[in-house]
Structures are given as C-alpha cells and as structure tokens.
Amino acid sequence: MIQLRKVSKVVDSGNDRLTILQPLDLEIGEGEFIAIVGPSGSGKSTLLGLIAGLDAPTAGSILLAGQDITVMSEDSLAELRGSLVGFIFQSFHLIPSLTAFENILIPLEIAGAPRAAERARELLEEVGLRDRGHHYPSQLSGGEQQRVAIARAMANNPRLLLADEPTGNLDSRNGRHIIDLLLRINRERRTTLVLVTHDQQLADLADRRISFRDGLVVEDIRRNGAGEWEVAS
To answer: What CATH superfamily classification does 32-55+73-231 receive?
Structure first.
C-alpha cells in the first residue's frame, strides 16, 4: 500500500541545514494499523505529511498503491489524494460557519459524488451523530467535532486513512470513543490506518508500532499470532 525508498527531509534553518528525517526505507501493507510514536520533533508528523503528499521529500521516492507521488504534478497528486487518502487532524479543521452535515457534504459535492446528501447522512450516522448534523462546530464537544472530522475523511471511501494525534485534544472518555471508531473503520473496512500518537493506549492497539527519534526509526515491531510484540520483518 505504502512504499518509501530512501526518503529523507532536510530544511534550511537560518544558515544551517536541519535534517528532520534521515534516509528511510519503509513498507506498509494494505489493511495494516500502524502507530507512529516518538518524542516531539522526532519526525513523526513530517513522515505523515510526506505520505499524504502534503509535503515533498528532499530525496527518495514515495509510492501509494504503486504510484510514485514524488513525480506527480500538483493536479495529479490532488486527484490521487481525493480518491485514495483521508486525513484527520488533531485540531479538527472544521469550517465554523458550516453545520456538521455541511462539513461532510461540501467535500462530497465538490468531488461530484453521487447521492452526496444521502452519503453525508450515512456518515453522520456511522460516527454516531445522526441527530447532531444541524449543529455548528461551536455547538459540539471536542469528541463530536473529531467524529465529524473522521466522517469527512471517510467521505471518499479512502483505502488509506492518515491521522495526526487524533485524540490529542480530547479527554480520556472522548479519546476512547475516537479510538473505538478508528479501530472499527480499520477492522470492518480493511482501511489502512497510519496514525501519529502520544497516546500509549492507542499505540498499544496497533498491529505495528514504529518509534522515531531524531529523524530515525529506532524500533519497528509488530504483533505476532500470539498477540506478542516482535521485530517487524
């Protein structure tokens, strides 16, 4: 599903060159649930942005579903993202002047999706907000706003769902609801789920956990058939 080949990211910082991501080879299979963990500034969110095509690597290539996104035009990349990828942000990124229903509906209409209104209502029900669709983001709790954001991310039936600290702004109760929802999406839809998290409870539920430090992978482990962690092959 995802292949990174010698991918690195270096940025200019004043007169210095700052290496955010060391050269990295990584493969993530279809339907896997991957947790990316590590201290702040270790390169986690940078990696997620590179996979999403929201940023370009300094070197190396990134393949999504066999397509090299590092050589695509902006238009082709936007089209691929629209058909393949859903993205969930820590801060929700809902449009405050639109209701929950409209926040899901508008992207569907822009994409020219058939039955857009019906699909938006189905997604609201799927995330448990059927009766909250007429509310604006300011009228929703943080957990409800994140559920709207997840519904919006799922609008295009993505094969790949990327999440950057999806429970970071939530209390433990609402965080648990979001964890359960993401797990259900991964298990029932077989959606590949890659998320950055500081939430140890969430990371421990993943099929595979990749730990970063100073732009390097320092641990890559997965669960075996007995449910125990072992070094990923």
So the answer is: P-loop containing nucleotide triphosphate hydrolases (3.40.50.300)
Burial of 6 (0-12, 13-18, 19+ CB in 10 A): exposed
Neighbours of 202 (CB within 10 A): 22
Return the DSSP state at 80: H
Q: Are strands 208-213 and 33-37 parallel, antiparallel or unpaired?
A: parallel
| Token pair belonging to 137 | 């983001």
What global pTM score does this model have? 0.91
- Average pLDDT (192-220) is 93
Q: Which two tokens stand for residue 25?
A: 């080879």
Residue of 53, 75, 36, 76 whose CA lies nearest to 163:
36
Tell me the C-alpha distance between 166 and 52, whole Å. 16
Q: Write down how long the chain is.
A: 233
Whether the CB-CB separation of 192 and 224 falls below 8 Å is answered with no
Q: What is the pLDDT of residue 199?
A: 85
Q: Check pLDDT > 80 for residue 53.
A: yes
- For residues 148 and 95, what is the distance between their CA atoms, to the nearest angstrom? 11
DSSP H helices in the chain: 44-52, 74-84, 100-110, 116-126, 142-153, 172-189, 200-203
Say which amino acid occupies 99. Answer: T
Euclidean distance between the first and the last CA atom of the chain, given in angstroms as a whole number: 16
> 33-37 and 192-196 as β-strands: parallel, antiparallel, unpaired?
parallel
Q: Between the CA of residue 159 and those of 13, 162, 203, 226, what are the distances in Å? A: 36, 10, 20, 27
Name the residue with tokens 């300094």.
58
Res 35 pLDDT > 80 = yes
